[in-house]
Amino acid sequence: MDIYKNEKLTDYPHLNLIRARYKDRTGTDKSWLYASRQNAARPDAVVIVPFHQQENKLVIIKEFRVPLDGYQYGFPAGLVDAGETIVQAGRRELYEETGLTVVDVIKQSPAIFSSSGLTDESISLLYVACDGSANTEYNEASELIEVKMLSQEQASDCIRRDNILFDVKTWIILDRFAATGKMV
């Protein structure tokens, strides 16, 4: 494949529409439309997988998502600000969305892509141990979040429900936690 032109169709601060012009393997001209968060830093965002030490539970959030016109179960997440490390962004986002604080960083993934047919957005999974009392007082006005703490048994019950919308990463990690009692 030979991408010979990327045309930015929109100009927004956090997400834009790009039309890529390319030649396929037969030399035929093609175009591909995708959403881009592309900036100089990678990954674009952090997804925090928190385990509450005192409660011995995995922490997830139930958050209203406009594109779904409903609530989705996911993990706290957010964009990495200029000059921030993944760990700094993870600490900030976990606190802002759940009121919980990071006690220990367990594991950090490299940049990973969850929907590369639609977007070039990359994230880093940050597995952490956390502590504190959950609250949503630091949520932005555009965030409608409920913090949930799940035991292994509760995670198993949760993933079996067909009336819950899940973020793909969350479903995979909850499935592992339900089966093994471990998040990593």
From TrEMBL:
GO terms for biological process: nucleoside phosphate metabolic process; ribose phosphate metabolic process. The keyword Phosphoprotein does not apply. Keywords: Hydrolase. It comes from the Bacteria. One of its GO terms (molecular function) is hydrolase activity. It catalyses: GDP-alpha-D-mannose + H2O = alpha-D-mannose 1-phosphate + GMP + 2 H(+). It holds the Pfam family NUDIX. PROSITE patterns: NUDIX. Residues 41-174 form the Nudix hydrolase domain. The keyword Transport does not apply. Belongs to the Nudix hydrolase family. NudK subfamily. This is GDP-mannose pyrophosphatase. The lineage of its organism: Bacteria, Pseudomonadati, Thermodesulfobacteriota, Desulfobacteria, Desulfobacterales.
